[in-house]
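As the work plan foresaw, our protein records have gained a structure token line. A representative record is set out beneath this paragraph:
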Amino acid sequence: MEQCTPLRLWRIIACLFAITVAPAYAQTAPQGFYRPGPLNGITDVPGVRVAHVTKIAGNGALRPGIGPIRTGATVILPNDDIWDKRVSAAIYTLNGNGELTGSHWVEESGFLEVPVVLTDTLDVGRADEGVVDWMIEHHPQIGAPDDVPLPVVAECDDQLLNDIQGRHVAAKDIVGALNRATTGQFERGSVGAGTGMILFGFKGGIGSASRVLDGSQGGYAVGVLVNANNGSQPRRDLVIDGVSVGRKLEHELLPSFPGHHSAQTDPKTPDGSIIVVVATNAPLEARQLREIAQRAVLGLGRTGLTSNTSSGDFVIAFSTTRLVPREGGRPTAALETDDARLDALFEATAEATQAAVYNALFSSRTMTGAGGATIYGLPVDRVHRMLSGGRP
């Protein structure tokens, strides 16, 4: 019998608390040693803003270009004027079978001067257009005579549930979402860019989490948002808080396709991708933020994700306090260079990323989409019982 250590007991109590009182966006498996922020999301980093566009319409057989529609977009703004208050940033590519537009300039310059937008694969161009429209709306001098923006848009493939040929996310949807983006709590799960996503054979989507360092470590916050769509990652690989949940549920609640028995026999099942956005108010430069982005990958590994050949897996990290003024001059805020504090940020990033993936699973619900394909949500109550040592 497993010994009930104080840490184990704390996890059981936290798990029971999540079942009884926590809203859907907070239902997740407790793990790690750093405390979450009050929202347990990327918006715990002061100034960060988030909004979604969710498009769900139609049922039945797939009619390419018409529906059913199960898609959307998610926008993340580091501050209230990203064009003039550029933030230091970096990108890390775990596996490059995907698209993250504008990444070359972020890597070259070491800063981010546009919003981060997540959407489906075939709507990248329309999202790019929406970002440009919004930027010009707020800064009419762009291109006449000011510089021009290179949008940062990341994609995941939602073709299994969505009529992806229809390209149902329009430029005006992105403009609207950017205008609505706010601080504070936001929806998780099958919303925005995560509407049609799949993870470990369960319904995936948008997940988010945060970790806050104590005062001796700088008191910094790290917030992570993921769009989790690693649909063909074997169910058996899923590990939650050290428990092999995927093995216990390996043969249950499998994706359902008319004329097929499982996701493994369906030739249209895409490998999917995961996009990770990391925000922190620690004053870090691009080199340090790349190291932060790399630690996010360690958090992905703790959940069982391995990054398949056909997966596009990208991490973008930015600091909200290390600004690079457009008008020139030295970046604001002195760099954090204390090794102990940096190590704590690394660990907090891995923890928050792991928790964000779980949050995507715990927040998503069963969805039926194009052609009657059904992807089941994680059986949350059963998983909580597994984590507390009870029967599944």
Q: What stands out?
A: Residues 1-26, 259-268 have pLDDT under 50 and may be disordered. The chain is about 25% helix and 20% strand.
